[in-house]
Design brief:
globular; 8 helices; 34% helix; alpha/beta
């Protein structure tokens, strides 16, 4: 485990050396992964369908993490296959636009256009995709559009400013996230908007008005102070906050891989998704 932690800090996907190289290159989408999903296009955005023709119930729309810089990876597909087969719903993974070629405005345009096809859907996002999912939920509510029946935010990045003081206490524990590189990425993602705009940092939106949200974090990740604050603002009657003890960023993606806390949280996700309308 110590070797894995050291590798993440020095050479992992969010290490400063790698981020600086990729921010000056081109978007890194998951072009060469084996997905077990049907690949299609929605305009010029690639989408992947899992069990598209097998199940007719409310679809799950999945927005992947990767700091708005990295594309889909095998863990995303593994998680979505497991979820689809248990809840018996099709899952659609959107390969939305990324840095450095694009910014939040282009990503929102593509994702919101896709969501506008549906009256009933479930919205799930992890990490950066969780921030995007919360921003989409806020946008749809503000514009009187159909809302997700349930929204699940897994280790979401809800404040790109990374300005909450308590974050500093977790920097020695979080072996995945790097505060300095995330601040730089957040500024690039914002483009010409303020980093506190709700479509960049959705925690600054009117989250008190939102319903049917499940929020998940690990207690050793940098995002947790912001997520604890957000959880206190959500509707207590139909929103749920789960914080994995001694867990790292995006631990939920390691479900069915021998990590008991991830498996337990996955079970709670299944419970949360019960009683979704099929039409």
């Amino acid at each position: 485990m110590e070797f894995i932690k050291r590798w993440f800090k020095e050479s992992g996907p969010l290490s400063s050396k790698r981020i600086h190289r990729e921010l000056n290159g081109h978007s890194v989408h998951g072009r060469h992964i084996i997905t077990g999903a049907d690949k299609s296009n929605f305009g010029d955005m690639i989408v992947y369908y899992i069990n598209r023709n097998k199940y007719n119930s409310t679809p799950v729309i999945y927005l992947h993490g990767g700091a708005y810089l990295h594309g889909l990876n095998p863990l995303h597909f593994k998680f979505c296959h497991s979820l689809s087969n248990i809840i018996k719903s099709p899952v659609v993974l959107l390969d939305y636009p990324l840095l450095p070629d694009e910014n939040h405005e282009v990503a929102y345009e593509k994702v919101l256009k896709y969501l506008d096809q549906f009256e009933n859907y479930i919205l799930i996002g992890d990490s950066a995709g969780g921030g995007l999912a919360l921003g989409c939920h806020l946008h749809q509510k503000l514009n009187n559009k159909p809302l997700p029946k349930k929204t699940i935010l897994m280790s979401p990045w809800v404040d790109v400013t990374m300005s909450t003081p308590e974050i500093s206490h977790l920097e020695s524990l979080d072996f995945v996230l790097n505060r300095e590189t995330l601040i730089e990425i957040g500024q690039r993602w914002a483009n010409d908007k303020e980093t506190t705009h709700y479509m960049v940092s959705p925690t600054y939106g009117d989250c008190e008005a939102l319903e049917n949200i499940m929020l998940i974090s690990g207690d050793e990740e940098l995002f947790t102070p912001d997520l604890r604050k957000l959880s206190k603002r959500l509707n207590k009657e139909n929103c749920l906050y789960i914080e994995g003890k001694n867990m790292f960023h995006d631990y939920i993606l390691f479900t069915n891989m021998g990590l008991q806390t991830a498996d337990d949280t996955f079970t709670e996700i299944i419970k949360f998704l019960k009683d979704i309308p099929n039409s």
